[in-house]
Amino acid sequence: MPHRPVWAEISLRKLVANYHRLQALAGAELMPVVKANAYGHGAQVCAAALTAAGARWLAVTDADEGVGVRSVCPGARIVVLSGIWPGEAEAALDHRLTPVVWEDYHLEELERAAAGRGMPPNSVAVHLEIDSGMSRQGIRLRPQAASFDLEPFAQRLRACSHLRLEGVMTHFCEPQRLSASRENPQIAILDAALATLAGFGLAPELLHAGNSSTTVAGADRERLRRLASRFGAEPLLRPGLALYGYLDRFQVEAPDSSSGLASGAAPGTSPPEPSDFQPALAWKTQISSLRSLDPGETAGYDHTFTARRRTTLALLPAGYADGLNRLLSNRGHVLIRGSRAPIAGRISMDQTVVDVTEIPGSALGDEAVLLGTQGQLAISAWDLADLAGTIPWEILCAISARVPRLTPAGEEMAPECAKAPPDAPLDAPPDRI
Ligand SMILES: *Cc1c(COP(=O)(O)O)cnc(C)c1O
After folding, report:
1. Which residues lie below 8 Å from residue 431, measured CB to CB, with a gap of 6+?
2. How far, in Å, from the CA of 325 to the mean position of ligand 1?
3. The pTM is what?
4. pLDDT score at 267
5. What pLDDT score was predicted for residue 179?
6. More confident residue, 217 or 47
7. Is any atom of ligand 1 closer than 6 Å to the C-beta of 169?
8. At CA 401, angle to CA 39 and CA 326, rounded to 5?
9. Which of 56, 200, 298, 415 minimizes the number of CB atoms within 10 Å of its CB?
10. Which residues are catalytic?
């Protein structure tokens, strides 16, 4: 149990409810994304809960994270989204990880390691990424252009006798933009890539693309399913953010009258309500000191907060080193006794000061909610993101490693959590100080 009272409560019950909700909407198998320590929620506990709930596939950032997830999920298939770095092939084979590949060195490292172990032919599954427009990673293909890069890669892949092309994947640039009439050009590129691979006798069993937005609302989800079925592959979708309880903001385009489509929302173009998903993480601290200021006195670095009246300030032992974005200084608020307490002055590295003048009775040990609900009020990762000029993905990932992740009070210790190793503690929140 932590002594410094700042912690995050991770509701595996909500995570799993979000997963079931997504699975019901998807119409295809899901590959839950637990990269970046499950968006700050704890990759091992989340992966264990998701596999206990039925997930067979998981996606992680890198081999290190894959090794950690493997220790609690012995049966899951674990896809390593960032590929492998030189020297990681042995770990990938030891822990049965499934790397995404697109660079020659990915193939060389894996083939050499597999040959060195005398592994049988076709025994190492890899997933090939197609860069269909992100210009980030993957083999680059362009609309209406010959697949110059894919053909030699397909040849090299075929020459690696230990490797088996199990899956092909891509990533969409703007999955939150919904349109019944606009074809996603990235799907046409994926189509061309599958045709090229088929020409080399390479027929992947799996085709995966799409994020949370695609899973809950995309017309692209249906296009992806049709494409997979034309090539005899199983489609998989890769939601991340919605598992943790948030949806992106959809941009629904009006139906294009010139396209001849009937007006009104076409199937798959109206997103579900954000309230269908429940944030799995709450971030809390407690008042650890109180003081009164006379009018004209200031608080924090650079005097950016000045008391206009007799003011009561409360100290919270959480700062930007915990991941509380410094851009929330003098802009954000926290929840205390069911009311909003504005952040007063600059957020410091380890502390934040809030104005509780209008919250009578504020006392040492009072719970302060940085992210989550208290009484009738809530602060969401979208609220913090809007104030800090960023996105909820970054708000969640920024909650730093020194903030312990705990089980919310009243939530049964799920059996799968018992499998979590000691470095991923989940226990009760601290008592009041
Ligand atoms: C992060 C990521 C996802 C999940 O995206 P969300 O928007 O969080 O649902 C899916 N696929 C890839 C390749 C990713 O990097």
Report:
1. none
2. 23
3. 0.93
4. 54
5. 78
6. 47
7. no
8. 85
9. 415
10. 35, 301
